[in-house]
């Protein structure tokens, strides 16, 4: 297929993929956003309305994945549907099996890489700049750095996932391992750890300069929140208990 | 900017949390700064954003889990703060604290609103399947538009009503003399930041990375003291 037609196809999938979670529901999860993303291709692929109707019914049944990493599945399924349409023989069962098999890896890798590493690390960098620098424009620059730091891998995965998924087809399944993204993971872990350390040191340092009692207050709240969250408590208790202790101490002192 | 346009923008930004894009403009430090900037008080927005950001970093929006909508809570907190702080500047720290606490409460409401939207989306899915069965095949885009519109309206209504309630509470409560409360709550901000840092630290798994971070903190502290 000509390169420009391919690129156009990828761009359509890429732009529509931003809406994958728009109709997230408890029955079919991402299926509507998933079908919305692939539907322009399917319209072109299937000449008659019956086949397009069958495509919609098949893909609206169920799909779930990490919203960014779903791009690998978009590319691979687009390729498989194309092959199936060209051959004329339905490979629908194989497509369905592949879709169900890829849900797990896409979710696991995406959650691990983005929600547990790239997102917190990028936020910490922005937070650090906003906390430390006094001028408004300096703070705004760090907010921009945060958004760039996060969205470079985000946009990259969304687009390259489609291209790689399309080129690899079924075999993309074997390449989807967390180890393939360990480089990103290590870099962002280091950035996040550094930013977090400087934030904590800065808050302690500020407390030393203003009121020494703030240091044990900070340590107490840090410890209580960490302890409660480690024991699977919701966010509210780890915030409210230290706050209550701080108010009681504020009244007593 | 007026309250209604601010709530409209707040609701629009909130869609970024899970519904569309997810480019993180809905994160408290970005969204609250934007709310502050639109209200000619970016520093108050930033202040609220900083206090609320760390609390939510460790909340992972994984799969079908119901999680507190910290971003919506932070946006509501920022709108309340920028609309009331000028009325009672002597209670600035209390207004900030009240806004943050109110925002935390609204994050709980936001979680249930998200669940309602997701339950409502099942209805949209069933309708869509019926239409496809009836050979109306150009309905997928419409389903997306409907869901986003309903989601936006719900977010807007929640933001507007909660903001009005928050402002009314501040206007009622802060007519009393609360000077002593400024002293009582003087450690609140450092404690909120400490809790946020503690929650964030739970993302670090294993003794070795935790040890490395502890060393980084010590080194940073020495450098900051030296500077």
Explain the overall architecture.
- The complex is a heterodimer of chains A (253) and B (227).
- Chain A is an all-alpha fold and 253 residues long.
- Chain A has helices spanning 3-16, 31-45, 49-59, 70-87, 92-132, 136-168, 172-175, 182-210, 214-230, 236-252.
- In chain A, helix 5 (92-132) packs parallel to helix 8 and helix 9 (214-230) packs antiparallel against helix 10.
- The relative contact order of chain A is 0.09.
- Chain B has 227 residues and is mainly alpha-helical.
- Chain B has one domain.
- In chain B, 75% of the residues lie in helices and 0% in strands.
- Chains A and B meet through helix 2, helix 3, helix 5, helix 6 and helix 8 of A and helix 2, helix 3, helix 5, helix 6 and helix 8 of B.
Outline:
Chain A is mainly α and 253 residues long. Chain A has 10 helices and no strands.
Please count the beta strands of chain A (DSSP E, at least 2 residues each).
0
Q: What's the helix-strand series of chain B?
A: HHHHHHHHH
How far the N terminus sits from the C terminus of chain A, by CA atoms, comes to 76 Å
Rg result of chain A:
24 Å
Report the sheet with the most strands of chain A, covering strand number, pairing sense and barrel closure.
Answer: none
How many domains in all of chain A?
A: 2
Overall geometry of chain B = globular
Overall pLDDT of chain B, averaged?
94
Descriptive key words:
heterodimer, A: 253 residues, mainly alpha, 2 domains, 0% strand, elongated, B: 227 residues, 75% helix, globular
Give the SSE layout:
The complex is a heterodimer of chains A (253) and B (227).
Chain A: H1 3-16, H2 31-45, H3 49-59, H4 70-87, H5 92-132, H6 136-168, H7 172-175, H8 182-210, H9 214-230, H10 236-252
Chain B: H1 3-14, H2 28-38, H3 42-57, H4 70-84, H5 92-133, H6 140-173, H7 179-184, H8 188-201, H9 207-226
Helix pairs in contact in B: 1-4, 1-6, 2-3, 2-4, 3-4, 3-5, 3-8, 4-5, 4-6, 5-6
């Amino acid at each position: 297929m000509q390169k420009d037609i391919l690129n156009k196809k990828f761009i359509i999938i890429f732009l529509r993929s931003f809406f994958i979670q728009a109709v997230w529901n408890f029955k079919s999860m991402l299926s509507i956003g998933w079908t919305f993303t692939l539907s322009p291709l399917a319209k072109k692929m299937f000449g008659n309305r019956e086949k397009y109707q069958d495509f919609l019914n098949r893909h609206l049944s169920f799909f779930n994945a990490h919203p960014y990493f779903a791009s690998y599945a978009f590319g691979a399924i687009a390729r498989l549907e194309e092959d199936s349409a060209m051959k004329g023989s339905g490979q629908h069962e194989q497509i369905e099996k592949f879709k169900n098999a890829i849900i797990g890896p896409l979710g696991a890798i995406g959650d691990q890489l983005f929600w547990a590493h790239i997102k917190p690390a990028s936020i910490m960098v922005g937070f650090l700049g906003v906390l430390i620098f006094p001028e408004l424009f300096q703070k705004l620059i760090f907010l921009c750095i945060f958004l760039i730091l996060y969205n470079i891998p985000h946009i990259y995965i969304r687009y390259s996932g489609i291209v790689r998924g399309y080129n690899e087809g079924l075999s993309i399944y074997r390449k989807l391992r967390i180890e393939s993204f360990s480089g990103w993971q290590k870099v962002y872990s280091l950035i996040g750890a550094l930013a977090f350390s400087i934030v904590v040191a800065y808050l302690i340092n500020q407390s030393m300069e203003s009121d020494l009692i703030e240091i044990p207050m900070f340590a107490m709240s840090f410890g209580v929140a960490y302890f409660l969250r480690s024991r699977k408590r919701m966010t509210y208790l780890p915030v409210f208990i230290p706050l209550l202790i701080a108010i009681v101490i504020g009244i007593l002192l | 900017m007026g309250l209604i346009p601010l709530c409209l923008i707040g609701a629009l930004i909130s869609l970024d949390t899970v519904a569309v894009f997810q480019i993180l403009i809905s994160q408290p430090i970005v969204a609250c700064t934007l709310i502050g900037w639109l209200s000619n008080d970016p520093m108050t927005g930033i202040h609220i954003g900083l206090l609320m950001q760390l609390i939510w970093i460790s909340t992972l929006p994984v799969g079908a889990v119901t999680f507190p909508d910290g971003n919506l809570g932070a946006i509501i907190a920022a709108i309340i703060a920028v609309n009331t702080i000028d009325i009672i500047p002597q209670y600035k720290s209390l207004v900030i604290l009240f806004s943050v606490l109110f925002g935390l409460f609204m994050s709980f409401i936001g979680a249930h609103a998200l669940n309602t939207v997701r339950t409502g989306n099942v209805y949209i899915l069933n309708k869509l399947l019926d239409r496809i069965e009836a050979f109306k095949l150009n309905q997928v885009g419409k389903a997306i538009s409907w869901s986003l519109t309903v989601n936006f309206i719900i977010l807007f209504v929640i933001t507007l009503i909660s903001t009005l309630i928050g402002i009314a509470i501040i206007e009622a409560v802060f007519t009393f003399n609360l000077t002593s409360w400024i002293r009582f709550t003087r450690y609140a901000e450092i404690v909120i930041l400490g809790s946020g840092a503690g929650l964030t630290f739970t993302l670090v798994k294993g003794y070795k990375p935790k040890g490395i971070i502890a060393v980084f903190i010590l080194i940073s502290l020495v450098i900051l003291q030296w500077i």
